[in-house]
Amino acid sequence: MTAALTTPALHRPRRKVAIIGAGPGGLAAAMMLAASGAKVTVYEKDEVVGGRTRTLTSPQGYSFDLGPTFFLYPRILKEIFSRCGADLEQEVDLRRLDPQYRLIFEQGGTFQQLDASANIARMEAEIARFSPEDAKGLRPYMEENRAKLAAFKPVLERAFTTAADMMRPDMLKALPLMKPWSTVDRDLARHFRDPRVRLAFSFQTKYLGMSPFKCPALFTILSFLEYEHGVFHPIGGCGAVSGAMARVAERMGADFRLNTPVDRIAFEGKRARGVEVGGTRHDYDAVVVNADFAHAIPKLIPDHLRRGWKDKKIGKARYSCSTFMLYLGLDIPLPNVAHHNVILSEQYRENIGQIENGEIPEIPSLYVQNAGVTDPTLAPPGHSALYMLVPVPNLIKQPNWAAQSARFREVALDRLKVLGLGDIRKHIKYERIVAPQDWESDFAVGYGATFNLSHELPQMLLFRPGNRFRDVEGVYLVGGGTHPGSGLPVIYEGARITTSLLAEDLGLSGASSLPVPGGQLATATPAEA
Ligand SMILES: Cc1cc2nc3c(=O)[nH]c(=O)nc-3n(C[C@H](O)[C@H](O)[C@H](O)COP(=O)(O)OP(=O)(O)OC[C@H]3O[C@@H](n4cnc5c(N)ncnc54)[C@H](O)[C@@H]3O)c2cc1C
Questions:
Q1: What is the DSSP string of 349-363?
Q2: Is the pLDDT of residue 108 over 90?
Q3: Is-above-0.90 flag for pTM?
Q4: Gap from CA of 444 to ligand 1 centroid (Å)
Q5: Is 3.90.1200.10 the CATH number for 16-94+236-317+451-513?
Q6: What is the pLDDT of residue 51?
Q7: Does domain 321-448 have CATH number 1.10.10.10?
Q8: CA dihedral 400, 401, 402, 407 (to 10 degrees)
Q9: pLDDT-derived band of residue 11, with 50, 70 and 90 as boundaries?
Q10: Ligand 1 pocket at CB < 6 A
Q11: How far, in Å, from the CA of 132 to the mean position of ligand 1?
């Protein structure tokens, strides 16, 4: 250890990295880069961290997650925390949910409920209530997807920087399981004949903002991840996870500048040299962009410097759906409404077609979260913080959202009858709407496409904007718009890929700054160097 401290590499000036955006991707990158010895500055345009994974609070004492509410596969974030000498479970109180969610199928004016459980015997019994034969499909489905995830893990954990990466042995091994010709719904039909049972294992494609009838078959692993590794609720909501990440990154020496939008990246030729903020240039060795790709890249990097992702191509890319959100503070408890409720309209398939064609569904499928049944911190005693998410067309498909919001609020509130709630309007003490145009204007989400560039094969792996952004030098991407894609565990994994490329490019070893538990660093700390 003493010998290592005398090596010339350790006397090099600290490498400086700017991160644009404190969403999950930016926060994970800040943690890992600071742990590797870089001097990290995070610029965030808003007054809070977390991006789409932030907490909204109301003066009456209600708290809501703005976006993510399903916390899946904590393993990746756990590893990132431990790389910083911290313990995720000590920083955030994670509760595994069982049942993990309630599905409500509407049929001819009646409703049928399925409480999804990771307990296989219990889940078989639930499936059998819909289709006894399909219950036999659960174990083979689990086994097959266990093998599929194992085959794809190496592919999803590495970068795709050149065409040769598409031909590497891990990719060739995984390819037959990928079934590029098939979709999630079609693949599930081999195990489950009842379309409602298939929906129970395929609605998760909505996490990517995609239709199970179009989403590549690879993504049957999404529901598998839930049954195998659990659905968690972080006490305080997923926003609490973002808060913990910022806390640990700060402990590692990262400097957070909130309320500080970056205007553009400063270039010399094609090489990024820093960022421009409020007319002042700040120099950096590398720049990591976490801001939403479609929204930010046209503003941050001049079109003429980009050869692969020009404005025209960004404008023509395919994007996920958007979401119409209602956050409601109610003066009543809702003990009979489950934590997560997925309401699948009889017109589920039509709804998807409508969303793709830019039509606003009149009887939409929707998701309602009543986290108060698990977490008392989200509302005053006797009250509830209700979160409603309705998938709707993005602003490319339906540019007239501003004129539709008030009417659609009524459509959405009327749908709560499915939960046996009656008319809750008189109990609303706090209300906030986030409609597609608000995602774009207030939260910097391009085209209001809440789940980023869609995850079709022509926009995945090598064809997605690269972790080391190939168009220019010294710019790196993290977040749902880069490889491997959207969704929290995937974004954390993407940040891991990006930071290891960056560490390689800047010669960051990280070895001299390995932390010990408790946030104290073993040797020279990034904060003090
Ligand atoms: C409604 C909704 C529900 C979701 N549900 C789930 C779920 O249940 N589970 C799950 O795993 N995933 C879910 N997701 C998907 C995904 O996990 C989140 O959207 C996630 O927050 C995306 O993270 P990100 O790192 O891409 O960036 P973002 O969260 O978009 O953060 C980007 C940050 O960059 C900042 N920024 C933008 N421009 C600038 C600038 N010029 N200068 C400085 N800062 C800037 C923004 O203010 C923002 O803080 C959901 C998403 C939404 C919208």
A1: HHHHHHHHHTPPPSS
A2: no
A3: yes
A4: 9
A5: no
A6: 98
A7: no
A8: 120
A9: low
A10: 20-25, 43-46, 51-53, 67-70, 72, 207, 261-262, 290-292, 296, 323, 389, 444, 450-451, 479-480, 486-488, 491
A11: 40
